[in-house]
Write a structure and sequence with these properties.
With about 190 residues, this protein is α/β, with parallel strands linked by helices. The protein has a single domain, classed as Pyruvate-ferredoxin Oxidoreductase, domain 3 (3-Layer(aba) Sandwich). The chain has 8 helices and 7 strands. A 7-stranded mixed beta sheet has the order 2-3-1-4-5-6-7, with helices on one face. Strand 2 (about 30-40) and strand 3 (about 45-55) form a beta hairpin. Helix 1 packs across helix 6. The protein is globular. The protein starts with a strand and ends with a strand.
């Protein structure tokens, strides 16, 4: 079983990202769970979402405490809550970051846990595609390229279940750009 934990703030599409990943892997015949965790329900409040993926039915119904993969959508969390976003991340796991610069603190943790760290400038992509800081779908594109959890085609099809018209087309562009631009950070 693969467990993914998504970090961001209210209004950034953290829950939508988890849902879209779930829809994509369902298309590929896998079993999935997706669920959010909210603090105060207001724009800007910390939000986490979780996605479980397996080849067999998932019979557990509790939180994700030791994820295989952590995706940090909100770049501010990389300076204010590094311990919180990396807590419980499994040895050898993946850390997918919306950043252009990896901090010394993250490098230290990545070395200690033998993490695979990937970065993408989802901020730049979002501003160029949406003219707004909508990082969620670019981060989904980065995640699937870095990990291979789902195919790009499955993600693009899942977008069509959630969005229509111009918004769908912009999200497809954002996902594809991040898919192409994500890079492994050499620790």
């Amino acid at each position: 079983m693969i467990e993914v934990r998504w970090h961001g703030r209210g209004g950034q599409g953290v829950v939508t990202s988890s849902e879209l990943l779930a829809r994509a892997v369902l298309r590929e015949g896998k079993y999935v769970q997706h669920f959010p965790e909210f603090g105060p329900e207001r724009r800007g409040a910390p939000v986490r979402a979780f996605t479980r993926i397996d080849d067999k039915p998932i019979d557990i119904h509790y939180g994700v405490y030791e994820p295989d993969i952590v995706v940090v959508i909100d770049p501010v969390l990389l300076t204010t809550n590094v311990e919180g976003v990396t807590a419980g991340l499994k040895e050898g796991g993946y850390l997918i970051l919306n950043t252009t610069k990896v901090s010394e603190e993250i490098i230290k943790i990545a070395k200690e846990k033998s993490l695979k760290v990937y970065t993408v400038d989802a901020h730049k992509i979002a501003l160029e595609v949406f003219n707004r800081p909508l990082y969620n779908t670019p981060m989904l594109g980065a995640l699937v390229k870095a990990t291979g959890l789902a195919s790009l085609d499955s993600v693009l099809d899942a977008l069509g279940e959630r969005f229509k018209g111009e918004i769908l087309e912009k999200n497809k562009i954002a996902v594809k750009r991040a898919y192409e631009e994500v890079a492994k950070y050499e620790i």
